[in-house]
Amino acid sequence: MNLGARARSALSRAAIRSQQRNEGPPRRTAQDLAEWARAHLPDRRLVVVSNREPYSHLRDGDRIRWVRNAGGLTVALDAVMQALGGVWVAHGGGDADRLTVDARDRVGCPPDRARYLLRRVWLTQEDHARYYSGFANSALWPLCHVVYVRPRFELADWDSYREVNQRFAAAVLEEVEDQPALVFLQDYHLALAARFLKERRPDLQVAMFWHIPWPNPEVFRVLPWKEEILDGMLANDVVGFHIRRHATNFLDGVAETLEARVDLERLAVDRAGRRTWVRSFPISVDAEEIAALAETAEVRRAEAEIRERLGLAGCKVGLGVDRLDYTKGIPERLEALERLLEKYPEWQGRFAFIQIGVPSRIQLREYRSVQVRVRRAAAAINRRYPRAGGPTVHLIEDNLDFRELVPYYRMADFCAVTALHDGMNLVAKEYIAASPDLDGALVLSPFTGAARELERAWIASPYDREGLADACHAALSDAPEARRERMAALRETVLRRNIFDWALDVLDTIVSLNLQTPAQEPAAAMPSGERGPTPRPAPGDSRR
Ligand code: GDG
Questions:
Q1: Phi, psi at residue 412, to the nearest 5°?
Q2: Which of 96, 101, 195, 202 could bridge 235 with an S-S bond, Cβ 3.0-4.6 Å?
């Protein structure tokens, strides 16, 4: 063993010991976040804005019930809002949402013990078809994820997107009245909202977090409304991405598209007398809560029940958990698993794979088509490699409650996260947080944001079927001590930076960078790395 490998192994052993003693670096908590807000936002309202609401109300016969919505963004920010209070502005999508709001379209959340207000914005079916399914999910989503699904650009979708962004901004302005506020916009549905907010209230602090990748300028420049999208985003004081590459892609796109001073060293854009800071903040999960949940007797019982129900006795188990989205690389994963069984026949009959695939955006053709591909690939494996206890691939097309998901995480011998391109991918971190006995392995695509942090995962490209099959084999056959070392190191990473660290970093950066933002156009010389004004390509320019 060379020196590097020895040092890494010693560190991992230390990590195992520290995991076993449940030690580790001091962790940020919801309490820390609340204290930070009391100290730094004493006289300002906090307003979070996202398309998706954290809780929906649904009709259930004569009754109304509420559900907490799944999805990385809503789950993460709900924990933050419960700690901080304030207002969350979002689209009211539940069929009983209108029946549960007050005269100002607000409802307390969580509905059983209100900690903050949810202000619902109403969208018509036409808005939904054009702003959400159209521009957001058929233009921006495929544009930003470089996965070879061609984006569709429709003028009517774009018009609707602008109009809905205006409506979200109007709801925020109503909520803040004439008070100072920090408005935190979420994701690609709301790229124009900051511009509408600042037009009316230039004094508001406004920041945006872009939860999905930002493409390189070669890809970005096909967007017919690229100037307007960038103009909208540059109305924010801070724009955040998960990783530095997405931030620099964004800055490169600005430099190519607009007349602006792009400072690659300070990661800032100066334009029309104001500055936008661009930063990376890798998001995480509420790791302690997931870890605690995974240790409960209820989860252990559920795990045993699942093993029994799916006939998994004596079987190694692999797991995938995703929205059924073409970006998540699910068909590619199943093809690699078929190759695993072919190339390493010792796993035939001794290995089962559980794929939880939450139906998503099913009104769009590409999403229906990924669902069909996944079903076919699972059926093909089950035909070719039958297993005595039950099917080799169990496809669960259901939206489970998060508590129901944890036993699957806990029981899996490996979890496969094989996104073709992703912002972060929270499933990778949730799986690690839910593996307290260190008996698990992560097979991870290098095209996820998580791969930057989770270096001890088995990194394998979903585009390389052979390599991915080999990585799954390695994850299954690794010696027990080596597995534990890897998992301990991964857990240390995930537990070191949880969702509260992310929120604190983002909010503290917004507050402190805003203090540094020059009121006037900065006259100071730009440091090296600066790019001067970039000429806007003329119409008909061959670079378009
Ligand atoms: C976007 C970006 C970025 C899954 N199945 C169920 C369920 N889930 C939850 C998981 C996890 C979340 O959904 C998925 O999070 P991801 O991060 O993988 O992906 P996206 O939803 O595409 O999120 C992504 C994220 O925003 C945050 O910034 O990481 O890159 O694409 O939390 O647990 N939850 C429940 N039932 C399920 O069946 N309750």
A1: -70, 135
A2: 195
> Which neighbouring-strand residues pair with 159?
none
The pLDDT tens digits of the residues spanning 414-469 come to 999 999 999 999 999 999 999 999 999 999 999 999 999 999 999 999 999 999 99
Strand partners, 205: 182
Distance CA 305, CA 380 (A): 27
Alpha-carbon distance of 357 to 534, in angstroms, equals 44
CA of 471 to the centre of ligand 1 (A): 23
What residues does ligand 1 touch, defined as CB less than 6 Å away? 70-73, 75, 211-212, 283, 321, 323, 356, 358, 399-402, 405, 422-427, 430
What pLDDT digit, counting tens, does each position of 1-47 carry?
A: 555 555 555 555 555 555 544 555 557 888 888 888 888 888 888 99
Q: Is the dihedral of CA 255, 259, 264, 269 positive or negative?
A: negative
Q: What is d(CA 193, CA 214) in angstroms, rounded to the nearest whole number?
A: 18
Strand, helix or coil for residue 239? strand
pLDDT number for residue 32:
87
What is this structure's pTM? 0.91
Measured CA angle at 132 (ends 131, 135), to 5 deg: 60
Long-range contacts of 63-71 (CB under 8 A, 24+ apart): 64/96, 64/99, 64/100, 66/94, 66/100, 66/111, 66/112, 67/94, 68/110, 68/402, 70/358, 70/399, 70/402, 71/323
Residue nearest to atom 9 of ligand 1 (CA): 71
> Which whole-number Å values give the CA distances from 399 to 38, 208, 299, 358, 425, in the listed order?
36, 28, 18, 5, 17
Q: How many CB atoms lie within 10 A of CB 142?
A: 20
Atom of ligand 1 nearest to the CA of 424: 29
Integer Rg of the chain from CA: 24
Q: How many residues does the structure list for the chain?
A: 544
